[in-house]
Amino acid sequence: MISVEEAQARILALKEPVETERVALAEAAGRWAAEDVVALRTQPARDLSAMDGYAIRFADAAGPWTVIGESAAGKQFTDNVSAGEAVRIFTGAVVPEGADTIIIQENVSREGDLVTLTDEAPKKAGQNVRYAGGDFAEGTVVVPKGAELHARHVALAAMAGHGELTVHRKLKVALVSTGNELVAPGARCAEDQIPASNGVMLAAMLRGLPVELSEFPAVEDNLEVLTQQFRALADHDIIVTTGGASVGDHDLIVPALKAAGGEIVFWKIAMRPGKPVIAGRLGAAVTLGLPGNPVSAFVTAMLYLRPLIAHLCGAADPLPQRLTAPTGVDLAANGPRTDHLRAKLVDGMLVPVGVNDSAMLAALSEANALIIRPANTGFTAAGERVDYYPLQI
Ligand SMILES: Nc1nc2c(c(=O)[nH]1)N[C@H]1C(S)=C(S)[C@@H](COP(=O)(O)OP(=O)(O)OC[C@H]3O[C@@H](n4cnc5c(N)ncnc54)[C@H](O)[C@@H]3O)O[C@H]1N2
Ligand code: MOO
């Protein structure tokens, strides 16, 4: 069995990022920059006032001053400010030539064109001035290639002069739940049946990612039917199955993928939950066979499916975020598989919750973290720091 890290590396190596397209900024949020975003302008383009008040020369900071004009955002004052002169100025307006300091209006009184100090004088030149280029200069890379684009990044791109960005196109992802025992969520469920919870869980995990999801009703454990299903999906970027990944007589993902003309790249990872993951290829598609157990499907989707999507969409850093925190309890030594313990952060300490059974969703839902116990880790005493994945989904 291969390690989690090797499995991640091999899955990401299966396919290069997909083609790129130009999209409007709002559409770019939730994707990854396919090329460096370079500033087309300098921001601020000129020295600007950060406050409403009067633009003066610091050399005559004690006043009084005669007001010679006004500079507003979008309408600058074009003359020079000389000794003893001030320009009425507003937040975001260009600081006129000759002036170097803004005195806020709360600190002065004005009678006609005469302004006098009523509070303390400015202490240094440049007070309340935002200098040209203080945010970024034209030609600077403001967002590097491979960075995830959030709301703040598209705002920055807009400020840098862009109306569109180059990103990777959305992925075609097929989601197939397998198992004779599955019934649709909410439908009547006999005692030997089980609600198909993996489909909705995975669809929810992929929401917000650049994915066009084709979701199929549960497929029966029948080699011919599964083979046909695989064949029909070969034009997708990713085919995700759940269930049928193990070694039982009804676990048919491996033979069905082979019968459809696909290739198994590896099967089984030294991890718990989620051991029987199958990574493969079918035409241009990457196939990920996730285990049927709901917690196994969740953890393996977090560790392999989401990173694969991020990688194919150009992410420089596709793996899930790992953090560290002290464990609140002693943790026993573990075996040769990397364990992922359902846990909760309580007052900054990680405390395991419920049972770590790969079929039990209640403990997973109560958790907000997964403690990572790498293969063959020794006893860890309460108070020692351990790695964990925060659960945000
Ligand atoms: N002899 C062995 N048996 C098993 C092994 C093994 O190594 N040797 N591995 C175990 C491990 S670990 C896991 S994980 C499971 C994985 O099994 P499969 O991927 O083959 O999944 P199924 O057998 O089809 O189902 C397992 C379990 O999950 C339920 N299930 C399936 N699909 C869904 C769904 N869409 N939504 C909700 N629940 C689902 C299914 O009813 C079963 O209860 O194998 C162990 N066995
Ligand atoms: O590895 Mo399986 O996911 O324990 O149940």
How would you describe this protein?
Its cofactor is Mg(2+). Keywords: Magnesium, Metal-binding, Molybdenum, Molybdenum cofactor biosynthesis, Transferase. Pfam families: MoCF_biosynth, MoeA_C, MoeA_N. By secondary structure, the chain is of the alpha+beta class. The protein has helices spanning 4-12, 25-28, 151-159, 197-206, 223-232, 253-259, 294-312, 361-366, and strands at residues 20-24, 37-38, 48-49, 53-56, 65-71, 85-89, 101-104, 108-111, 114-117, 129-130, 141-143, 164-168, 171-178, 182-183, 194-195, 211-219, 238-242, 263-267, 271-272, 278-282, 285-290, 323-326, 338-346, 349-352, 369-373, 385-390. It has 4 domains: 4-16 and 170-312, MoaB/Mog-like domain (Molybdenum Cofactor Biosythetic Enzyme, Chain A), CATH 3.40.980; 20-43 and 134-168, Molybdopterin biosynthesis moea protein, domain 2 (Alpha-Beta Complex), CATH 3.90.105.10; 48-130, Molybdopterin biosynthesis moea protein, domain 3 (Molybdopterin biosynthesis moeA protein, domain 3); 323-390, Beta-clip. The protein has a 6-stranded mixed beta sheet with strand order 7-4-6-5-9-8, with no helix packed on it. A 6-stranded mixed beta sheet has the order 16-13-17-21-20-18, sandwiched between helices. Strands 19, 22, 23, 24, 25 and 26 form a 6-stranded mixed beta sheet that branches. It binds ligand LQZAQKY5 and molybdate ion (MOO). Ligand LQZAQKY5 binds at residues 177, 179, 181-182, 194, 196-199, 242-248, 251, 273, 275-276, 291-294, 296, 358-359.
Q: Which residues sit in consecutive blocks of at least 5 with pLDDT less than 50?
A: none
Q: Mind describing the biggest β-sheet? A: 6 strands, mixed
Helix count, per DSSP?
Answer: 8
What name is given to the CATH topology of the largest domain?
Molybdenum Cofactor Biosythetic Enzyme, Chain A
The total tally of domains equals 4
Distinct small molecules bound, one entry per kind: ligand LQZAQKY5, molybdate ion
Structural category: alpha+beta
